[in-house]
Specification:
With 270 residues, the chain is an all-alpha fold. Helix content is 69%, strand content 1%. It contains 13 helices and two strands, in the order αααββαααααααααα. Strands 1-2 form a two-stranded antiparallel ribbon. The longest helix is centred in the middle third of the chain and has 22 residues. It is globular.
């Protein structure tokens, strides 16, 4: 793919930074869409009138940002996926600030409450029917940790999606992945232990659907907040969490470890 012309003349001071910014602008602006292969290192160097090491430095920075993917033997490729960028940004803040699980999951409660409020106003009858089907699936599909966690994720992804607010939905989706992922890790793969919390709250999930269907925003928000309080309390009281809290009181290390394993340039685990 031919490269668009560089932005106004690059200055010699920190030219690599300016190349980073120029390519970043083109990627985020859609001029270089996802999966686009960049020209070779030599071609980029000629295009920007700089040395090959300067191009390599710029590519390394953009790769660390999650905007490019470099593999031995193939061209550098644009990886401009919104979910990947958001996941990496949130994970970086959580890890850098050493946030506790309670902090992260408290934020999810607020986000899902707002999603429910927006769904009351914006969701169509078909949207609500889809959420009801997801709630029914989550009530039934606890035969294994894998199927149960996927069904729960689908329910909450659907809830945030019917808010028709893409940024809100993306935030909810990723933080829900964190919460479910950590719950799976604390259960040590035990279907019985993992399913204990979601099974006890199957009616609560359906009540949320009913409140949205009745267009009762206040009730939907209250039910969401109650649901998350119970989830956090019951996760905290699980044997796995109690044991981890002996050495990791805020589950900060457990949270950081999960993010380090599951979030990277390939995106968050679905």
């Amino acid at each position: 793919m031919p490269m668009p012309q560089p932005s106004p003349r690059l200055q010699r001071s920190r030219v690599a930074d300016q190349i980073v910014e120029d390519l970043r602008r083109q990627i985020l602006g859609g001029e270089l869409p996802d999966a686009t292969q960049l020209p070779s290192e030599r071609e980029l160097a000629a295009h920007y009138n700089v040395s090959a090491p300067t191009i390599r430095e710029s590519v390394r920075v953009l790769t660390a940002m999650g905007l490019l993917n470099t593999r031995n033997g193939s061209r550098t490729t644009v990886t401009a996926r919104a979910d990947t960028l958001l996941a990496m940004s949130i994970a970086s803040v959580v890890q850098f600030e050493k946030m506790t699980a309670d902090d992260v999951f408290g934020l999810l409660s607020a986000l899902n409450a707002y999603a429910a409020e927006q769904a009351v106003e914006r969701a169509s009858d078909a949207d609500i029917a889809e959420l009801r089907a997801a709630a029914e699936q989550a009530a039934e599909d606890m035969a294994s940790v894998e199927s149960g966690s996927a069904a729960l994720l689908h329910y909450f992804v659907t809830l945030s999606a019917i808010s028709h607010n893409p940024l809100l939905a993306a935030l909810c989706r990723f933080i829900t992945q964190i919460q479910i992922g950590l719950a799976v890790e604390l259960s040590k793969g035990s279907t019985e232990e993992f399913g204990r919390v979601p099974r006890s709250l199957r009616k609560a999930r359906m009540d949320i659907v009913d409140a949205i269907a009745q267009r009762d925003a206040a009730m939907a928000v209250q039910l969401i907040r109650d649901y998350h309080r119970k989830v956090i309390s019951r996760i905290q009281s699980s044997p796995g969490a109690k044991k981890r809290r002996e050495t990791d009181p805020g589950l900060t290390t457990a949270l950081s470890s999960w993010l380090g394993t599951n979030v990277g340039l390939a995106g968050s685990r679905q």
